[in-house]
Amino acid sequence: MAAAMDWLPWSLLLLSLTCDTGAFYVPGVAPINFHQNDPVEIKAVKLTSSRTQLPYEYYSLPFCQPNKITYKAENLGEVLRGDRIVNTPFQVLMNSEKKCEVLCGQSNKPVTLTVEQSRLVAERISEDYYVHLIADNLPVATRLELYSNRDGDDKKKEKDVQFEHGYRLGFTDVNKIYLHNHLSFILYYHREDLEEDREHTYRVVRFEVIPQSIRLEDLKADEKSSCTLPEGTNSSPQEIDPTKENQLYFTYSVHWEESDIKWASRWDTYLTMSDVQIHWFSIINSVVVVFFLSGILSMIIIRTLRKDIANYNKEDDIEDTMEESGWKLVHGDVFRPPQYPMILSSLLGSGIQLFCMILIVIFVAMLGMLSPSSRGALMTTACFLFMFMGVFGGFSAGRLYRTLKGHRWKKGAFCTATLYPGVVFGICFVLNCFIWGKHSSGAVPFPTMVALLCMWFGISLPLVYLGYYFGFRKQPYDNPVRTNQIPRQIPEQRWYMNRFVGILMAGILPFGAMFIELFFIFSAIWENQFYYLFGFLFLVFIILVVSCSQISIVMVYFQLCAEDYRWWWRNFLVSGGSAFYVLVYAIFYFVNKLDIVEFIPSLLYFGYTALMVLSFWLLTGTIGFYAAYMFVRKIYAAVKID
Question: Which end of the chain is more exposed for a tag (fewer CB within 10 A), N or C?
């Protein structure tokens, strides 16, 4: 279940965060020192495919197994991501080479895949599955060498090295399916400087693999589990025929190289920014949008509003000025409580909860404490923070509910604690049933689901009640004008005051401020990429908050000028208009960027997208609502009301 934000004083902060950190290590991810010939454990994480969006356990396929399979204890984030970290039979020793070794099976007895196993392996290869391994918590990567100068001479060609996470399970060629059954591990170590008399220690700083497909007949194995790889390109790949049994060897080789990369910088390989410029372009674009909105606001507030207020406060010729302008005419109705105040305050409470959670998570991640090396930490932190932020969500919802003349605070608190989380849990549970049916490791285990329910009803619910109780007891927001007993008639509205037109107009600018970063977030979620640009993300978040607030103020001003005082719900809906564009972008991304054709992966994509859009609407709607509420109270406090 995975937005974006960074931007010139801030660039100095970003620069300081991306520098080598020397001796500072985040708790729990301190370096491990190895001596010569110490075992370096290779563990498997999962199998993933951007085509199916369904992760699987490593041993869901007939790979070689160790004598005893041991699963690593995982945190909440790892479980929700579908990680199932398990030991493997690869024997790797620090700075010790291995030419070729048979992983399982003897020289005269290769591994035999049954018809059913062959069919499953062939299916996974055709679905573009990748295998993810880790060594010393460092994920394996496949080196891709791209040549940028294709038209020039070979000598002038510039080699652009990129890394692909994991390695391909196999490949297809002319309707035949081939399995990568030989892995050439290339591990890089950094030799630590020590005093002369002490033995050298080593740290693993990079983990690469070159997967190969070598058929059984071309691999020569002996009784000691050693093997000889075929020379040159004479060998044929190992075909997997899904209609019959297949015999093959699983083999591997290990090569060590010394590296100048220090342990603190070892993740830089995986997180290389090849597109820094586009992020800065995104930020500059966003800043231009914010300045544009600020210009409109300045014109409205400084010129129009001051003129309006000055005219309204003149004692003479009041009737003429009241004919000219409309927002003062609705002063007796502008604070009239809307329909369904309990639901409105509950949704806004959940929006505050989300806002606090997202702000803290992005800020902490920007400081480097939730980096990809802390596997699952981001999602675990987000879950717990959302639970604990319930006290702030409850407080704001309770105070607003009392301001809107609500009386049933207990029911309101229950609604706040269960409405949005209930929708999220319901959608996730339905999707989880489909994932269970596919036997995917992405399915949340039943005990984890029970633990999440216990967190919801044991932590979040009581905290929401606590916050709601104190918020409801606190003095309600002070509205500067009284509400008339009889509602004023609303004149017929122009076509551009339609709610949907308002959503389209209000959403385009905040979405334009963040859509480039949104692409990188979608790539991280749906294409198994690392997202780590939390400095950029933090700046984009700030820009999003500012632009949502500004556009909300503009929209509520025009609505009140049209003498329509029913702004509460409308402003909440319209301020979240950028969520509509996120939905449109998600559909565009699905059609143009992803190669998903099956029903269940499509259902998962749109199910989780619906949750993202709902959460984003709550977040931006809440930001816009409170900005508009402060604006409305401010302008009506500035005029004299008879």
Answer: C
Asked whether the beta carbons of 330 and 488 are under 8 A apart, the reply is yes
* Residues 359 and 537: beta-carbon distance below 8 Å: no
Nearest to 175 by CA among 124, 126, 211: 126
Per-residue H/E/C for 169-191? CEEEECCEEEECCEEEEEEEEEE
For the chain, the first-to-last Cα distance in angstroms comes to 55
How big is the chain, counted in residues? 642
CA distance 159 to 146: 6
Confidence band for 109, pLDDT divided at 50, 70 and 90: confident
Distance CA(243)–CA(241), nearest Å, equals: 6
Beta bridge partners of 255: 186
CA-derived radius of gyration, the chain? 30
- Residue 290: per-residue pLDDT: 76
Please give the structure tokens belonging to residue 531.
Answer: 């997202």
Tokens 């500004």 belong to 550
- 227, amino acid identity: C
**Cα four-point dihedral sign 585, 588, 592, 598:** positive
Closest of 585, 611, 510 to residue 285, by C-alpha = 510
624 CB contacts (<8 Å, ≥6 apart)? 506, 548, 549, 551, 552, 555, 571, 572, 574, 575, 576
Residue 440's Cβ-count burial label (10 Å; 0-12, 13-18, 19+) is: buried
Nearest Cα to Cα of residue 528 among 10, 71, 161, 47: 47
Per-residue pLDDT at 13 exceeds 50: no
Which of 354, 363, 417 has the alpha carbon at shortest distance from 386?
A: 354
Nearest to 565 by CA among 489, 503, 478, 479: 489
* CB proximity list for 67: less than 8 A, separation 6 or greater: none
Give the CA angle between residues 625, 627, 632 to the nearest 5°: 90
Tell me what the mean pLDDT of segment 36-47 comes to. 90
Which of 82, 69, 120 is closest to 441 using CA atoms?
A: 82
For residue 489, report the phi and psi dihedrals to the nearest 5 degrees: -75, 135
Look-up of token digits 């974006």: 4
Dist CA 47 CA 52 (whole Å): 11
Contact call for residues 189 and 94 (beta carbons, < 8 A): yes
Count Cβ atoms within 10 A of the Cβ of residue 247 and give its class: 0-12 exposed, 13-18 middle, 19 or more buried: middle
560 vs 361: CA distance, rounded Å: 37
E-only strand ranges, 180-287: 182-192, 201-212, 220-221, 227-228, 246-248, 250-258
Check residues 232 and 373 and name the one with the higher pLDDT. 373
Which pair of structure tokens corresponds to residue 576? 């979240």
Q: State the pTM of this model.
A: 0.84
Which region holds residue 175: left if phi is over 0, alpha if psi is between -120 and 50, else beta?
left
Q: Report the SS3 class of residue 481.
A: coil
Kindly list the distances between the CA atom of residue 337 and the CA atoms of 184, 332, 341, 490, 568, in Å, as whole numbers in the listed order.
69, 12, 7, 16, 8
Closest by Cα among 52, 199, 66 to 127: 52
Beta-bridge mates of residue 109? 106
